[in-house]
Amino acid sequence: MACRETFADIARLAISSESNDDENIKIAAARLAQEARQTASYGRRGVVDVTEQFSAASKELRPGDLVIDDFFTLFEAVGALEIMDPKMDSGLVPPGEPVDPSFDPVAPLNAAQSLWILDQLSSLEIAWLEGSQLSQTVFTSLHLDRLLSAANRYPYTLQYGEPADLSTNESCLTHVVVKAYCVALAKCCAQVLMTVQSQNFYDEEDFVTHLFGQELLPRMGEDDVKTILDDAIRWVVNCDLPADIKAALEARLQARKLYMLSAFGEANLWANLVVYTEDKMTEESHLLAEPIPEAFTDKVQRHLATSTPPRPMLQLTWTESQKKWIKLFSDIDEADRLTDSQARQSPASLQKAVWSFASRDPSTYPRAIFQDLLFAGGTVRDDIPHFDLMLLDIRDLVLAGDVLVDPASFHVEVPSDPRHRCARILETIMDKAYDEYLNLYRMVCQNRCRTRRTFTQAVPLLHELETTIAKQADADIDSIMPQKKLDTVFGKQVKLSPLSSWSRWYKLKIMTETISLGFETDIYLDYEMGGMYWYLSQLNLEKQRLLQHIEAFLLDRMAQIVSSKNVAYSMDCIASQDWINCLREETEVSILLAEALADLYALLSHFKLIKSADRPFAQAQLVYEARMKPYLAVTDPAPPSLESFKSAQTLTGSPEDAVIRVEARVKPIKEHLAKLKKVSPTAGKFVGTEARRNAQIKQLETTSVAIFVGASLLKRTMGSGVGEDGLREVLEVSIPPPGKRYNDWWVVPQIKPKPKSE
Amino acid sequence: MDAPNSASNASAYLSGFLNRTLHLHTTDGRMFAGQMKCTDPERNIILSMTHEYRQPSEADVKLAAERHKRSGKNGNVKVDMKKRFVGLVVVPGKYITKIEVEE
């Protein structure tokens, strides 16, 4: 009621505001008043039959005439569901068919049928967790539908809250076993929804939270459900059914209980669930089941509130669905392992953990649990506050052994103390960088396309952070604690500017990652690859310069600390030096790979072995701007001009020189990778993700070998005297799609001799 | 309201229904209540914020009767129409059996 009154008030207010003579406002006000009247009158006032007048008026309209509300567009109209169209109208009941399904959920079931229903529910539930909507998965169960029915009431039995007759095994299987499983499943779904909705995710894209007007047993508490489930397990254990089917039923109920306890956070049984599912949810046990497909129907969609067309019920095989469950459980278990106490001590390790988790391509629920571990309560797993994490990050990269980032400096209370004043400056900038910094973790937990997109949106923000906010903070710190000047790659007698340098590092990192993710999500056309790899190499060169600049100051600081004999500071510096060395090696590998690939693609374009930019109606400048859009706001390093981007895609010098260049770039990669292999997990900050790191190094090795092989084949063929145009006759090139590459970030074109035609 | 007799009158007459709540009864016995947004010469009607109403099924009536009996009440059993939200819909003119407007 209150809502209606406010509605009417707004309308009245809007009408009385005569001072504004804007026509639209008047229309809107009249509309609001009308809608308010309607809302208030809804269902109370009488109705008048206007069928005849309406029909007569319709006939008078000329063909093509539309009577349409000014605020309603035909664009919106496209989204309207067409009533009586079987593909659109979820409520359509074909003539002669009863509205309600004939299956009676109260009917007694034999053990084999009950088992089939449980198994079907489990298969449908995982389909929902993988992104299908409830109306085409678990809501199709007529048992669950009965429990969730608006006519049902606490304690939610299949007989609308009334107790059931439990005199036979068959009736107990329905009213005890199937019912318990349904109730627990509904509560599990409710809990999953709560977890997912508390974190960042993309509704309708990765996961559908829509409940279609149903409620998931709101009055049923977790303890109620546990009791019901335990009663069902006890009944199965004590009943006189054949041993094999008894074991199968018990296993389903036990697995449900383990899942429920874990989902509600009462116990961490995800690892057990993996083993339990592998051991007990076998194909043999499922073969005991007797199909009773009439217990499920997509006709439930007739009474579910929905503004979407009907969707068919999903069909998953038992083996498929159990594989998916095992994947889900192990993903969640991995989330737990990746954030263990070792891994979360270092921000860089934790960032690698997030990427490693994302590379498993987990579904939305595990992603939500992972985010919950990382972000709940402003801490990582109730242990490391985000503030400390960020401070540690700044220290590890730019300020190891500096009093500025010493936690003790943050506890100095004398307001005149420079440490106190600088700590406040650091706190302010960390506050401002907070969201963007945490997005480095959170956004990687989204699907790959979203990760790339949100990162591209972060580029200008990080640029802003570096060039204004951090720059100012550096200047402020400098005025309180004058900073040292050194000669570095950035110039003579320059300052470290720690906070700008730190922001710049992340800006460059995100820029290179968005480009690499562009390769992974396959957004570049063949002829763009060379240019993008060239741009990637330029950005990596910038990273390398920044690391050199930071390193110069680190070495200087170390020299002073050695004389001051501060052990803790020395240790920090050594760790930072190891870390920067490792980053420099990694960056060097990226530069070499990117340069080699840029040259290789330029060669392939030159020989017309890959499709060129054949776009007669496109304006090169516009196409270029669209591609470079995320980076156009960055002034340092400014994105290349169209001309330099184009010239990077075309061959410079002779093809022979270019091939030699490619080979020369690939050769040293092996040495750099060998060095990286020797780095310990602590020094290289990949604690907890060792396996992925080793795999990646191997992938990069293979990638570099593949580039070398391709270049050699080109060289040999060029030397065989076929001529530039002849090359196309004897060689063919294919670009491997994501998933078929040695590493998804490095697209090595496959160059092969053409099969000789007979 | 009187029936109009020319195209412009017809248009003006029908415009009077815009944004008013119509009840459209369809050939299959359902009723759709929502605000009219658009109509055309074929009497196709677009309704927004629509609810679908359906006659209760036999099972619904039986359940209501049982409950009524158990609760010990006398007199007639009342069973509500089944209602659900369906949002923006277009009801094709050929299926419309009755048009009502809320006063």
From TrEMBL, chain A:
Residues 348-714 form the NAA35-like TPR repeats domain. It is found in: Cytoplasm. Transmembrane segments: none annotated. Its main location: cytoplasm. Keywords: Cytoplasm. Residues 63-225 form the NAA35-like N-terminal domain. It comes from the Eukaryota. Pfam families: Mak10, TPR_NAA35. GO terms for cellular component: NatC complex. PANTHER family: GLUCOSE REPRESSIBLE PROTEIN MAK10 (PTHR21373), N-ALPHA-ACETYLTRANSFERASE 35, NATC AUXILIARY SUBUNIT (PTHR21373:SF0). Belongs to the MAK10 family. This is Uncharacterized protein.
From TrEMBL, chain B:
InterPro entries: LSM_dom_sf, LSMD1_Sm, Sm_dom_euk/arc, snRNP_SmB/NAA38-like. Transmembrane segments: none annotated. It comes from the Eukaryota. Residues 12-101 form the Sm domain. GO terms for cellular component: NatC complex. This is Sm domain-containing protein. It comes from Cladosporium halotolerans.
